């Protein structure tokens, strides 16, 4: 009887062992099929400042989730349960300037009380004015690139630049769309997990809709739900972002691209008056940058009266650089004041490659550097000194410009 009990127990334990082993291998090999939801967009950092940010993502089906975040390396110091939805925006308040943070996004396992880390990353909050050294990257037209080109660009940014590189600026045409899909961060999903992107609207953000109300409807359906901006202007059209001792002012001049739903930029309009007011209260900033899509210089498509009214504000309030889209992959002007070189003028830097804009031979005398190679501009600010380097996507240095004021 004793031997029978021992034999039965041995047999039972052996069966239990094989059963647990089978479950283990099922989990290992079939794991992708047991998750209740898959991430289709994000997560990405949005609307970052020195005191708050948002983390945004979307799943293929509605799902509960949990977001853990905290100062590095305590990524689960705070846990936020999320409602059952496809699109989630988690606003995080109370972060401190110039600090490294991290987050974990948990999704549930089907028919289980368990969850798994679906995505994790880090981010670095913006500096306040006590720290005067930081860097940023300017890029354009990723919607016109191939996905491989954009992945190469994103990988270069992630691998080469340190945490002092706080943000990316886009001069338009970031949104990729077709009849089948809309992709806001086409090919650059890797970098937006950890760095925020602030952009000036381009034609692609309007869906290239030139008819009245069509561009507006496209923005409301495909762009605005996925982006958040500081509400100091009329978002997403015009707004500003402060980082350390610098102010970045984003404008929408797509009326020059024949987009009828774009706000007007004539003297006395809402956008013009807003810009005047913002510049008036930017005198304490060491650096002022204006970012827009349609080029100011060199460009033959502006009405001279309208360009003059814009330039009047930029010169009066001592804007340092204008970043713009345009015909050349990279173009840097001399200092320009009302169309001619002037030591009291403004530098214009173009990242483009779009054929609809044209640079004419008579513009050559105001151009300092012009390159027909796709790339991005890496800019370092250290107090009153600025160092700009234009790289191709393979990180070959193509142009460098150093300036002090």
Please, could you describe this protein's structure?
By secondary structure, this protein is an alpha+beta fold. It folds into three domains: 2-33; 39-124, Immunoglobulin-like, CATH 2.60.40; 133-404, Metallo-dependent phosphatases (Purple Acid Phosphatase, chain A, domain 2, 4-Layer Sandwich), CATH 3.60.21. 20% of the residues lie in helices and 35% in strands. It contains six helices and 22 strands. It has helices at 2-30, 147-160, 189-192, 214-222, 270-280, 304-316, and strands spanning 39-46, 52-71, 78-93, 100-108, 115-124, 133-139, 165-170, 176-177, 182-183, 197-199, 239-243, 246-250, 287-291, 321-324, 330-333, 336-337, 340-341, 347-350, 367-371, 375-382, 385-392, 397-404. β16 and β17 (340-341) form a beta hairpin. The termini are far apart.
Question: Which characteristics define this entry?
Answer:
single chain, 405 residues, alpha+beta, Immunoglobulin-like, Purple Acid Phosphatase, chain A, domain 2, 3 domains, seven-stranded mixed beta sheet, six-stranded mixed beta sheet, globular, disordered N terminus
Helical content, roughly?
10-25%
Termini Cα gap: 97 Å
Biggest β-sheet: strands ordered side by side in the sheet: 11-12-13-14-18-15-19
| CATH level-4 homologous superfamily of the largest domain | Metallo-dependent phosphatases
Instruction: Please compute the radius of gyration using only Cα atoms.
Output: 25 Å
Shape designation:
globular
Structural class: alpha+beta
H/E element order: HEEEEEEHEEEHEHEEHEHEEEEEEEEE
Tell me what the CATH architecture of the largest domain is: 4-Layer Sandwich
Q: Could you describe the largest sheet, including whether it forms a barrel? A: 7 strands, mixed
Portion in strands: 35-45%
Runs in which pLDDT lies below 50 for 5 or more consecutive residues are 1-6, 17-33
Number of strands: 22
Which fold does the CATH topology of the largest domain refer to? Purple Acid Phosphatase, chain A, domain 2
What's the domain count? Answer: 3
Overall average pLDDT: 88
The number of helical runs is 6
